[in-house]
Specification:
The structure is a homotetramer. Helix content of chain A is about 45%, strand content about 15%. Chain A is of the alpha/beta class. Chain A has a single domain, classed as TIM Barrel (Alpha-Beta Barrel). In chain A, helix 1 packs parallel to helix 2 and helix 3 packs parallel to helix 4. The first copy, chain A, is globular, with a radius of gyration of 19 Å. Chains in contact: A-B, A-C, A-D, B-C, B-D, C-D. The interface between C and D is large, with 50 and 49 residues. Chains A, B, C, D: GO terms for molecular function: metal ion binding; xylose isomerase activity. Chains A, B, C, D: It is found in: Cytoplasm.
């Protein structure tokens, strides 16, 4: 099995929050960040947001830097969140002009993805949702989402569109807030090149068992892309992989092998106070350690134990391998 | 609009929990419970579980008691939870014999519903889920669910099948845990007579905005039945309607009018320590008070305010009517 | 009863988050923000953070602006969060130099408070906590907290020190995370001029019933200051007062009267996308509407109903006044 | 260090819930349950509830059975929850007659504990709390709690009184809902023989980091007794130890060694659908596996890493031992 690891390059940037807007450290140019990424053992890909990390202006430069650092663009994230104009929504905004602009941005992001060889874009709709009761018309918002995504996925069939769900933040409620809703949405869009991104932290935050979410999406042919990180369930803390949900991660990596997921294993961490290179390196080491464990346990053996249905026996078998 | 109120008759029973299994008060025969229900102003319907409140043995008796008390059966709940044989699942159990039995039980429930004039059954799959990681094969479980529900909904088209989602309890994780998952499931079953039940407490527990869940289901023609109660979000407390989520209830009742929901407004409360008649009476009074408020506010006026998109102005308008 | 309303002046600033660091609107100088605050009917006080809104450099200017706008400084918040040096803690930092600096900052904040006539400082320890298991020595941190606060409260007895608890953000875990922990801490410090600030949103986020937290603190003579806002329990959303927890707010305002709280009613809202003047105005109108309701209900009548212990009857009595 | 393992004997009983009140299996007499407990490798103690597992009537018989099975009574739980008379509270009930009865029951429990050689009772106040806003007078309840516990702890100084906190269930809100509140309470009672029980699941449910709660209590000399189990944070699922919070358990066992906790390691699991002997056996194996790991890691080495404050490096060190 040939696992390809990737990381979002925002991890190497300044990492601010609402109390420290200028960041917990100084920000860095994308070229420097790519260099840092390239120093991480096992990492061969990077995620770049458009237009944030990569823009129309620095596209050539980014392409160069990728080559120079022997990194592939794993996916291009379309930034529908980080500018004021999107604050009441993008693909589902009530304002048709904003929706139009948001669709066009995604289409340009597809072109950028194709140019950089990523061949897939990530669409996370951070601002499409609501903060208060009585703020939006849910039915109209749903229709606008479907229509906008049809225009995007229909724009070019050689670039995949990966819709990433998240229950909240920056809005108190996002429209596309769990795996089933995301699947429903992409099914309604009805095109082959649209599917779903699971971000492990978002899935935990949605109250999901991540392996179950993966199984549902893979069973419907829509498991397109994966973000790894960890949190304490109530918020998207974007922590070191496995630092909290180790048992869930073991189950998840077993299922990733089982369903034959062959996409990127991409890190989406946000190390406010930690060294990003260290966090990425340790996240990859943890994932590799778990993959080795799953191999030692054996997928057929785990299948057999699950088929027997004695959960305690199965957990005991696993425990004997990690706490001998 | 002519609102029809109903209540689950288990509210009038002993109401035990795991620490007080014999109940917070003595249990009562169904005939007595129906008499109590009939004493509640505005209540014209009752929910009965089969085979628990209504059984093959007491069917005639229940039919008589309904007539005597001038009550309609609003829906028949099929009890796939309260017997030991279902403890590892019913419609999605790994054991094909259990699945068969569970399907047949639901079909018999449909016959009972037809006989009692309810013409709809409620299927809440309390035991279909898992407690631990590595306990079940999520993909098989999904297939079994779809197959079982096809056999049920296909059994007779004159009885509606309402699937009620709930994120947890009695399992730590239920398969059908939110509105979108339930909608995905019934769409996959693909028959006209299968739809979804929203239980307000389950929806809150799933982290949903209830009005949004309603809007999604109604927009897809699958909003079949409704359970009212309240809780503190982290558990299915089955409290007095509006005792916690008053603002959400106002939004919900506005949306129920807006989408033209014409089904039952059914109470699913579990008053361990309170008088169930008092809780149902006050729940109905609260719902009617909110409906009156929504009428005073005016649906076109609320539509207009929402279209303007100024959430604070909309909430201010509502506040002036409840806190003058 | 003479209620004094106040608001944190950060509400009138740019309001950024980690995805939109430059803010959802342009930031404003403190003088402009004070002018906005002064335009809000019923508002007579403002909270200022030191050294952020008020600094050593602009102290005279702020004093002037307060006078010119007929505003009082209700409390001075000491900013132990918004600079990089505090990122691993302030009063409980492992580095003794940082702790010293943090103590001195608070003492200077007390001088500023005295100078501006506020006579109380607010200490919210946003960075004192941890993100990961195995990150800190909890016992040392507790001792450092107690020692640091002794030095602060002991610095001058004419300025009150109000410790504000919050369960998380910006750390995934804060040390002083609920009302009982805050009370334990200030009792251990053991000086008369140290007490607790309840921020309603932090209390909800801590899983508390806010009225109960207030009753506990007031019963121990440590209920010093109050922040009003609202949220959806899982995060500190800093929303419009009463937009979510209306029932809890009614109970809270009843208890505030009952225990004779005579401090400020201060707004701590963070209106990313809304007009801050509108949010503060509507928050005050909501609080006044609830106070009027509590007066109409009558505190002796509510006392009597609570003494009877029939929760449904009490809630029914209240409901009849808001949903007639 | 010589670890003593214990288990609550209710684990071996029928285990019902509100949907299956007669239990997921048949109940068993206490003598049979003790025999099952005795079959578990490494288990030397049992917890018994009075008057439930042990009563005035079967006291001699239980004493015999303990001897016959070579089991010690680790602690006697006083049952203030499982009878209807406690439904609105016990030690903090508004009815003084109920409070009196509750105090006497605890005192008799102390005599039973002394007689059986346990020398400590556990007080978990399941019914002392509230379900609704406006249901109770929080200040009176607190005073009644303190007074009742004074009478109990003062009754005989040779038996320890361990107060177990839990945020909810069976009430939607319990008064003694977290570690700090419990510590505040026992400090206010002010007697040497009263302290706190941490139940890991209750602590997780309270949003606590369990190791931090332990450190706080141990630092104040009040860490008396420990219940082990696991859950998904939002409810007291009473699952197999370490099946969810493995990382937290490693940190907890490190801290238990660090503070020199020398009490019982007692299992409080509730295996509805699993074999209780298997769950207890595997729980103990997991705890022993973690203890071995902590020894391999070395407490001085962990102390040193924590003092350095590089969380990622510390977690990496641990990860290398469990996922080599």
């Amino acid at each position: 099995m040939d696992i390809r690891f990737s990381a979002g390059v925002w991890a190497f940037d300044g990492c601010g929050d609402r109390f420290l807007l200028r960041g917990y450290r100084d920000g860095k140019l994308v070229a420097e960040r790519l260099k840092e990424a390239a120093s991480i053992p096992g990492l061969s890909g990077v995620e770049l947001n458009y237009p944030a990390d990569v823009t129309d202006a620095n596209l050539d430069e980014v392409e160069e830097a990728l080559k120079a650092n022997k990194l592939q663009a794993s996916i291009i994230g379309v930034d529908h969140t980080g500018q004021r104009k999107w604050q009441f929504g993008s693909l589902a905004a009530a304002d048709p002009g904003i929706r139009r602009e948001a669709v066009i941005l995604a289409q340009r992001g597809m072109d950028v993805a194709a140019r950089l060889g990523a061949n897939q874009i990530n669409i996370w709709l951070g601002q499409d949702g609501f903060d208060y009761c009585f703020q939006v018309d849910y039915q109209k918002a749903w229709r606008w989402l479907v229509e906008s995504l049809k225009e995007i996925a229909g724009y070019r069939s050689d670039v995949r569109v990966c819709v990433e769900y998240k229950p909240k933040e920056p809005r108190t409620h996002a429209f596309i807030n769990n795996a089933a809703k995301a699947l429903l949405l992409v099914q309604e869009v009805g095109l082959d090149n649209i599917g779903v991104t699971i971000d492990v932290g978002h899935s935990l935050n949605a109250g999901e068992n991540v392996a179950e979410a993966l199984a549902l999406l893979a069973g419907h042919g829509k498991m397109f892309h994966f973000h790894f990180n960890d949190n304490y369930r109530s918020w998207d803390d974007d922590l070191l992989v496995g630092s909290v949900h180790l048992v869930e991660y073991i189950e998840l990596l077993y299922w990733l092998q089982k369903v034959g997921y062959d996409g990127w294993y991409s890190l989406d961490v946000f190390p406010y106070r930690e060294d990003p290179v260290q966090v990425c390196r340790e996240s990859i080491a943890t994932l590799q350690g778990i993959l080795n464990l799953v191999n030692r346990l054996g997928i057929p053996k785990l299948d057999e134990l699950i088929a027997k249905g004695d959960a305690i026996a199965t957990l005991s078998f696993i425990r004997q391998h990690i706490l001998p």
